[in-house]
TrEMBL record:
It holds the Pfam family NTP_transf_9. InterPro entries: DUF427 (IPR007361), DUF427_sf (IPR038694). It comes from Flavisphingopyxis soli. This is DUF427 domain-containing protein. Residues 2-88 form the DUF427 domain.
């Protein structure tokens, strides 16, 4: 079982993550949605496409743009559609 934790809370937990470029992508239904806040931030990856972000909010603390996902990934990265990855101090393991 792989867990993503931040600020003392489990943000995501699954035995069905996909590892791409060293990042665990969790199925959306394994993520505790109550900790996610929409963000307007986007970025572009040449082979995956346009990434969108969520900030995390736990116990009054915010970790801006700590989660990302590809709502419409390019064909080469189709397997990560419907999945979310984490960074910025989120412990994954």
């Amino acid at each position: 079982m792989i867990r993503a934790q931040w600020n003392g809370k489990v943000i995501a937990e699954s035995d069905d993550t996909l590892v791409v470029e060293g990042n665990h992508y969790f199925p959306c239904d394994s993520v505790a949605q109550e900790y996610l806040r929409d963000s307007t931030t986007t970025s572009h990856c040449p082979w995956k496409g346009e990434a969108h972000y969520h900030s995390l909010e736990v116990d009054g603390e915010t970790n801006r743009d700590a989660a990302w996902y590809y709502p419409d990934p390019k064909a080469a990265a189709a397997e990560i559609k419907g999945r979310i990855a984490f960074w910025k101090g989120v412990e994954v393991g």
